[in-house]
Amino acid sequence: xxxxxxxxxxxxxxxxxxxxNSGDAINRWLLLRPRQRIVQLLKGQRILDVCCGTGNMTExxxxxxxxxxGIDSSRTMLSHARQKHIAAEFKQMDATQLxxxxxxxxxxxxxxxxxxxxQVREKVWESMQRAVLSNGRLIALDFAVPERNSLMSRxxxxxxxxxxRETLNYHPEHYENFQEFMRNGGLISWLYKQDQPLxxxxxxxxxxxxxxxxxxSVSDRxxxxxxxxxxxx
Length: 233
Ligand SMILES: C[S@@+](CC[C@H](N)C(=O)[O-])C[C@H]1O[C@@H](n2cnc3c(N)ncnc32)[C@H](O)[C@@H]1O
Known about the structure:
By secondary structure, the protein is of the alpha/beta class. It has one domain (about 10-230): Vaccinia Virus protein VP39 (Rossmann fold, 3-Layer(aba) Sandwich), CATH 3.40.50.150. It has helices at about 20-30, 30-40, 55-65, 75-85, 120-130, 150-165, 170-185, 185-190; strands at about 45-50, 65-70, 90, 105-110, 130-145, 200-205, 210-215, 225-230. An 8-stranded mixed beta sheet has the order 3-2-1-4-5-7-6-8, with helices on both faces. The longest helix has 15 residues, at about 150-165. The chain is globular. It binds S-adenosylmethionine. S-adenosylmethionine binds next to helix 3.
């Protein structure tokens, strides 16, 4: 398969092209509340949606009058995003090598960091830092390790584990990377290691999903706010 730059690239999502529409419905339901939180924080801004996939996050940002550029390496995922006729620009790009320099108010990455190798994850984050203005924000939504064991956290963890296990059928590295990500404490632990202040944290589904807002300096790391916003079933 040729990508938009005309070179060959492996697209793990190609083999599940036919299933992406049904997967999309679950994705929208599970991630509705975390995405609504992100949209509230970013209304009307210029946003880079990194690893935008089929454009579910992009669509909600556009509805909140954001100007959005969505990038993803998968031609399959981008073709689904484009079929939705969202008023955003979609580009096929590797998120480790974003060509943007201080062009966005914020960069968002939703449900993508966990599937990457640790060194790729770090490069993506650095690339996102370069893409935003000096006072710009980076926002990540991804899987987290619950602080407390509850009925909701057990239910959601099982759902997530089952869904991630499916990736063994078409992209085993995805599942291995997910396991490594969770073993090391999930999104919040990973972001702590990136030497950036975590300004706001929001937890969903019993703490199994988190939205974290980071700023650009390390000075006020301890001034962050934490909140739990349970998704109603
Ligand atoms: C599970 S999907 C999530 C998509 C979307 N952000 C969402 O919230 O539904 C993860 C996406 O990350 C993309 N991705 C993974 N590694 C990437 C990389 N290095 N550069 C660009 N996209 C990447 C995949 O192609 C896939 O579309």
